[in-house]
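Why should sequence recovery work at all? Because a backbone constrains its sequence more than one might expect. Tight turns favour small or flexible residues, buried strands favour hydrophobic ones, and helices have their own preferences. The token representation captures these environments compactly. In the example below, the structure is given first.
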């Protein structure tokens, strides 16, 4: 792990560039927060199995649908940390209400990325669970948390532009805000990210993002 971490250390200039790319790619919430999708047009919407409406095939987002995966059972059934509660908040704020993501939230705060993620428009986040971070040796985790540039690189690698539905992950390649490529594969309710990380709770909605909770921390090459 020490070798992996040393290979991914960035200079301050590189980290700033990664953040600038993320802000440019995602845009701000001010541009889109006041324009909710029009769900009443029968020609543009359809009913899914839950009775939730989703956009049609005219280029609109298709993010509505069931959550899936064994980890979903650990999400609170009600309150701000529930699926319904998270859907009302932007992604960093929503994650802070979910007890499965407290370590990730601490890392996002340490890297000063809360505003970056909350103001982004239409992103997908592969969010490592607390158990995923627990797999990292404590010494390595402490070193990662102490290096803001490296931490920024690792965290922005978990974020890709666009809200992606599960079918997009069947054989997907996405450019992360860090600049590297994230690959996904699988079908149905079983998906893998970068060959090793498994989705344990998928298709979680926030007001500006689709979240897939994963069981490993992704490391950019």
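From this structural description, the recovered sequence reads:
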């Amino acid at each position: 792990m020490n070798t992996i971490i040393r290979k991914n250390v960035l200079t301050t200039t590189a980290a700033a560039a990664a953040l600038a790319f993320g802000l440019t790619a995602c845009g701000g919430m001010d541009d889109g927060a006041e324009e909710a999708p029009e769900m009443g047009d029968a020609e543009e919407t359809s009913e899914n199995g839950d009775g939730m409406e989703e956009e049609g095939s005219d280029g609109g987002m298709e993010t509505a649908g069931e959550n899936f995966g064994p980890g979903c059972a650990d999400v609170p059934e009600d309150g701000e940390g529930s699926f319904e509660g998270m859907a009302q908040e932007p992604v960093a704020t929503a994650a802070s209400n979910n007890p499965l993501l407290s370590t990730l939230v601490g890392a996002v705060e340490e890297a000063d990325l809360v505003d970056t993620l909350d103001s982004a428009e239409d992103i997908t986040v592969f969010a490592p669970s607390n158990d995923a971070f627990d797999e990292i040796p404590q010494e390595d985790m402490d070193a990662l948390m102490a290096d803001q540039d490296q931490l920024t690189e690792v965290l922005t690698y978990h974020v890709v532009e666009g809200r992606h539905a599960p079918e997009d992950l069947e054989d997907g390649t996405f450019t992360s805000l860090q600049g590297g490529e994230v690959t996904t594969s699988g079908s149905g309710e079983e998906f893998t990210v970068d060959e090793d990380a498994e989705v344990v709770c998928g298709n979680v909605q926030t007001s500006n993002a689709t979240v897939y909770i994963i069981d490993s921390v992704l490391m950019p090459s």
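A few observations help interpret the result. Confidence is low (pLDDT under 50) at residues 1-63.
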